[in-house]
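Q: A reviewer asked whether we had any structural model of the full assembly, not just the individual parts. We don't, so I'm hoping you can provide one. Inputs are below.
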Amino acid sequence: MDIWGQIISYAYQYFDNAAFLALSAIGLILIYGMMGVINMAHGELMMIGAYTATFAYYAGVPVPIAIIFAGIVTGVVGVIIERLIVRHFYNQLLSSLVVTWGLSLIFTQGMLMIFGPSAKNMPTPFGSFSVGEFSFGIYRMVLFAVALLLIVGLWALFRFSSFGTKAQAAIENPTMAQALGIDTRRIYTLTFGLGSAMGGIAGAMFAMTAAVSPFFGQAYTPLAFITVVIAGGANVIAGLVYAVAYLAGIQTLTVNVFNQYIGYISIMAAAFVALLVMPTGISGFVERRRVRAMQR
Amino acid sequence: MGGERSLACGRGIGLNGPQTLGNSAFFWVVWAIGLALMIALPLLASRYQIINASNILISSILAMSLCLIWGYGGILSLGQASFYCIGGYAYGIAGINLIQSSGNTELAILAGIIVPVGFAAVLGAMMFYSRLQGVYVAILTLVVSLLLGLFMRQTADPFYAIGKAAFGGMNGLKPAGAGDPGVPPLTFRFAEYSWVFDGRGIGFYWLTLAIVVLVYLGLRWLVNSSFGYKLIACREDLDRTETMGYDIRLIQLTVFCLSAAIAGLSGALYTAWGAYIHPDGFSVAPNILVVIWVVVGGRKDLTSVVISTMLLSWIALELAPYGEVSLLIQGLILVVAMLIAPDGIVAQFGAFIGRMIARKPRIAPNSWKEKIA
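A: Here is a predicted structure for the entire assembly that you could use as a starting point for your response.
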């Protein structure tokens, strides 16, 4: 009986870690894959989402509506950022990185001025279940379900909607897409907004598991960046899924054998190993394999 | 003509060239006046201002290290402050352990340079020999810095100590036992003479100023040498440089290590200045500040970076009493500078002055578009 508890405990931790990585990276990798911009302010967008959800919750809004509301607010913030600033730095990868980093500083310090350093809390819903001696929070599995839902939703959006088709055209060959009458600028703005909204939703979800402060985002971004770097931008969804599966496995293993810090270090090491084998990231590797298979 | 004479005056020792703004005799005269004013600063300013000025000089060494790899080498390191901090910790640890037996800190300064170089060599070899570039290097250096900070924060346990120096976690580096010395000031000993440069003193200010000038002139010579041309070739187009027969991995690794050495030197000076080093130096804020100094100045020119570092650090000091506003304003300055002057406010202003003086219009050497893989 206890063995079952242990096994379920490992599986639970695996899905928990996977949800953490997937939720914090999905908006980031969408923007990176589409426009090649690493949005360093992503953590701060998550923080804005978390604040929005928390305030909405205490204003009496039901939790699911609060989360959606957080997504809308951060989406709008993302659109504004893209229109005003990021737009000027397309095709300049490092400059876009630095300018969004500056934005993250402005957001963090601005929030610190407005709301102060004190943390806010939302209760974790759903309670827990237990197997043998082990007790598990249900909400962590809800996080995983939401991560899956977002990934599947993103896939469906790109697979079935006309926006998805246009967006794919805009990535594949922007000049040709423009010639065919696709407003690529609008596509970029919408994608940036969508990626930001996903960050906001992730932030709102995490607001129920962690204290919300102006530095909220900094707990999520380092691992999210690593996930994006090893996922690569060639095939956003496949890259994200593989990268998350790989990193969550490494993390679960090392955190159980050693400790939390060694877990972080080994994620870093795992990223280096993955990049040595696949310098263009997992998705670049997958894409090449696919192209080769099609040529055969 | 003034212009021709001026090019000759710095060319003899290789300080002038197309990689740096300010090659005219006029520039060097202004430069010398600026230097003279800074040497004379202790006569004009209060002791408190001199202490702050020393720190600003230390910061400008750090900024030059990022200018070298990013502006000239095309490698953006978002974790430049980590080398600074590693150098600081290495100086402190070596200093605490050696000051009583040797009576000087020469080995400690050396440690403050060597240890970051060793760290950069390992990290750089992993990155450049697996051919990572651009955003990958930027993200990895940042994450490494944050992880180091995470590690140093949880070292409050006495277990984390090297000899007489305890890491001290969030309390910063400190002596392990009651009888052990604290972080020593810069101390040099030659035969029976010894000189102590306390961080609070005017001597320390002049010493730091001398180091800034040496690093500045050394880097000007380097970027205008043939190695500098290879660096710039790497910045402009890695593949093409490799096709020409240069080992880009080695060039990138070399400049990464050199920049870590300079950053480590400034970290060692910082620790000696404040007798204190703290894990917060590895966090986001110090790393982003270095980037702000370099971007606002103009990352492709050393002189501009030094000027902007001094100005921005001074603004930050003036704003410090107002708390969060200081970093907020620095962030705003960064974003606005990138929008209105992509090549840097100081560098564009400098190029403008240069055009005014040269009468005939000259094209800024580095005005081409940034291009990354």
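A: Points you may want to mention in the reply: The interface with chain A takes residues 70, 76, 78, 126, 130-132, 134-136, 138-140, 142-144, 146-147, 150-151, 154, 284-285, 288, 291-292, 295, 323-325, 327-328, 330-332, 334-335, 338-339, 342, 369-370, 372-373 of chain B (CB under 8 Å). Confidence is low (pLDDT under 50) at residues 1-11 of chain B.
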